[in-house]
Design brief:
The complex is a heterodimer of chains A (333) and B (271). Chain A is built from nine helices and 18 strands. Chain A is an alpha/beta fold and 333 residues long. Chain A has two domains: 186 residues, Rossmann fold, CATH 3.40.50; 114 residues, Rossmann fold (3-Layer(aba) Sandwich). Chain B is an alpha/beta fold. Chain B has a nine-stranded mixed sheet with strand order 11-10-9-12-8-1-6-7-13, with helices on both faces. The chains are: A alpha/beta (333), B alpha/beta (271). Chains A and B meet through helix 3, helix 4, strand 7, strand 9 and strand 10 of A and helix 3, helix 4, strand 9, strand 10 and strand 11 of B. Strand 13 of chain A pairs antiparallel with strand 11 of chain B. Bound molecules: flavin-adenine dinucleotide and adenosine monophosphate.
Chain lengths: 333, 271
């Protein structure tokens, strides 16, 4: 019988685990240590790479619940929800942490109502309340204007999602090892009604916008679609992905997957560079939690400067090309 | 097709202003609107009706003033509105909300499709749509960005996920939560507005539905908000002004230094 009361949900892509699967144990480890329990990761998929399971142990996990079967290759919420509910009912965890990805934010609410259990979306902070051992979940709400702390006092498990990239994986400790519970597949878990019939790649990497350290975003100040090439070049040099305001997306300068803000994506990169973006409250809602914000805007009164750690008041068509040529080592003065 | 759209009334966030001294939200005079992301669900429903015939029913759970949101949905082209309102629902979290909406959808009955927004801009959880699907055991597509085809009691959709657009085929009835890319919401017409003003709505309370009292409101909500903070939104950033060649060089020197201190670029701008 297992004694791991804190679980994280790993995510797979083909046979590999996604990077966020290694980030979540950093959150889980702290909680498990405070509760004096062990930490487990749930891995659902097909033929998952053994090295990646080992990597989970190196990144702080003590146990793995491994559920693999060809029918579980690829996420379908109906199936994964059945699997997770079966695991929860058998092993009774206290806390489950998943990623606030399209997968996590589909699977977790599905499971939560069926149990029922409390679920807090998109947490920025997780901690244990000392007196009670309850999970304290802090999250932004109302467009980031408030931070709410939420507790689930009477229901178990306590469930939360956290944003990808909001936690660094623990340093790899190759002396660590762990226990793999191979969970017997139950054919009743397969719902069978919904079929995945295809996949269409996005021309650009806009979909990776929540999964990158650097976002270089542009708005109406870019004046036309072609000028996004400036941002693409900068993004390439800094190892990032291009983002955009709604104005830029609505004008057709760049596709919707790149949109940051209230009706687009919420991002938490290490660096968010906003060029020609005024910083409307709906845009800020999607990027305010970036670690470092740099803004380039010709209007000194633009609200984006109120949230910027470094602001350049000036013409982006002067500033960005000069910055690019510096990064290229051109030292153009 | 009979289509049910779940809509929520929310405070208009673009009007939410922060008091710069106290760091708190100024709520006075903030208007209530249809959750902006639900407009895409409404538009999707109306478009499907135009193409395939049938009716679109908007339902909302909320205070009596949420009637306004329903009338707006009618003005856009929905055929009926259902308002579920009552003290017993106060303090509902997403689990309790999903329960009531699921029971309401069941009571409407005979539907082919249930549509919801990706998330509401106030609570910002996106949990209610998947929750209703789970409770009604409806096939679910979240983050739906396009409807490819409806045929033979099956719907083919694209959903926008991190890796691109995933194509799913679901049997009807199904539940979709939709993202902005799926449609461009129309504005209500004058005629629509006039019709909406006169039309009768259905008002339901807890008694109108088959509900387990223990699952309602605060009692039925596993989560509790225990603290609200108003984070300071302002950062005290360094500002450089670029007006000529000289200030440009200064600004970029200083930006480079700043970024390398933060370890975001290697020294001297070499990446
Ligand atoms: C319900 C709702 C949801 C919304 N959701 C989103 C969302 O998800 N994301 C989003 O971004 N917005 C969203 N918006 C829209 C938002 O309110 C703003 O309209 C939008 O963010 C403005 O985009 P922008 O900053 O690119 O354009 P503008 O506000 O027009 O700003 C352009 C900026 O570029 C600067 N500029 C111009 N030329 C130059 C130059 N040569 N060099 C440097 N700077 C220059 C200008 O000074 C200006 O500050 C939403 C609005 C609503 C009502
Ligand atoms: N009280 C409600 N009444 C009707 N629909 C709702 C309600 N709350 C949430 N929804 C629907 O569920 C979606 C997600 O809401 P949320 O989970 O609160 O972010 C919304 O876009 C609506 O479509």
């Amino acid at each position: 019988m297992s004694s791991a009361k804190v679980w994280t949900i790993a995510e797979t892509s083909g046979r590999r685990l996604k990077p966020v699967s290694y980030e979540l144990p950093a959150r889980g480890r702290m909680l498990a240590d405070k509760l004096g329990t062990r930490l487990a990761s749930v891995v659902i998929g097909d033929q998952v790479d053994r090295n990646d399971l080992q990597e989970l142990f190196w990144r702080g996990v003590d146990e793995i619940y491994l559920v693999t079967h060809p029918e579980l290759a690829g996420f379908l919420v109906e199936n994964y929800s059945n699997v997770l509910i079966a695991l929860i009912k058998t092993y009774r965890p206290e806390i489950i942490i998943a990623a606030a990805t399209t997968t996590g934010r589909t699977l977790m609410p599905h499971v939560a109502v069926r149990l029922p259990a409390g679920l807090t979306a998109d947490c920025t902070e997780l901690d244990i309340e000392e007196e009670t051992g309850n999970l304290l979940q802090t999250r932004p709400a109302i467009g980031g204007n408030i931070l709410a702390t939420i507790k689930t006092p009477h229901h178990r498990p306590q469930m939360a999602t956290v944003r990808p990239k909001s936690t660094k994986p623990l340093p790899r400790d190759e002396s660590r090892s762990g226990l793999i519970h191979i969970v017997k597949f139950n054919p009743n878990w397969i719902d069978g009604r919904v079929k995945k019939v295809g996949m269409r790649q996005i021309e650009e990497t806009g979909a990776g916008i929540q999964d990158t350290d650097v976002v270089i975003a542009g708005g109406k100040g870019l004046k036309k679609g072609e000028n996004f090439s400036l941002l693409r070049e900068l993004a390439m040099l800094l190892g990032g992905v291009v983002g955009a305001s709604r104005e830029a997306v609505d004008r057709g300068w760049i596709s919707y997957p790149h949109q940051v803000g209230l009706s687009g994506k919420t991002v938490t990169p290490k660096l968010y560079l906003a060029a020609g973006i005024s910083g409307a409250i709906q845009h800020l809602a999607g990027m305010k939690t970036a670690e470092v914000i740099v803004a380039v805007n010709s209007d000194p009164e633009a609200p984006i400067f109120k949230v910027a750690d470094f602001g350049i008041v000036g013409d982006l068509f002067t500033v960005l090309p000069a910055f690019i040529s510096r990064l290229k080592g051109g030292k153009a003065k | 097709m009979k289509i049910i759209v779940m809509i929520k009334q929310v405070p208009e966030t673009s009007e939410v202003k922060m008091d710069e001294h106290s760091g708190t939200m100024v709520r006075e005079g903030v208007e209530s609107i249809i959750n902006p992301l639900d407009l895409y669900a409404i538009e999707t429903g109306i478009k499907l009706k135009e193409e395939y015939g049938g009716q679109v029913i908007a339902i909302t759970m909320g205070p009596p003033k949420a009637e306004k949101a329903l009338r707006e949905a009618l003005a856009m082209g929905c055929d009926e509105g259902v308002l579920i309102s009552g003290k017993e629902f106060a303090g509902s979290d997403t689990v309790a909300t999903a329960y009531v909406l699921a029971q309401a959808v069941k009571a409407v009955g005979g539907y082919d499709l249930v549509l919801a927004g990706e998330r509401a801009t106030d609570g910002d959880t996106g949990q209610v749509g998947p929750g209703v699907a789970a409770l009604l055991n409806l096939p679910l597509s979240t983050y739906t960005s396009g409807i490819v085809n409806i045929d033979n009691n099956k719907i083919t959709v694209e959903r926008l996920i991190e890796e691109g657009y995933e194509v799913l085929e679901l049997p009807l009835p199904a539940l979709l939560t939709v993202v902005k890319e799926i449609s461009f919401p129309r504005l209500p017409t004058l005629r629509g507005k006039q019709r909406a003003k006169k039309q009768e709505l259905q008002f339901w309370t807890g008694k109108s539905l088959d509900l387990d009292i223990g699952k309602l409101g605060l009692k039925g909500s596993p989560t509790r908000v225990v603290k609200i903070e108003h984070p300071k939104v302002l950062r005290q950033g360094k500002i450089c002004r670029v007006t000529d060649e000289e200030t440009l060089v200064e600004a970029l020197d200083s930006l480079e230094k700043f970024l390398s201190e933060k370890k975001l670029i290697a020294k001297e701008g070499k990446v």
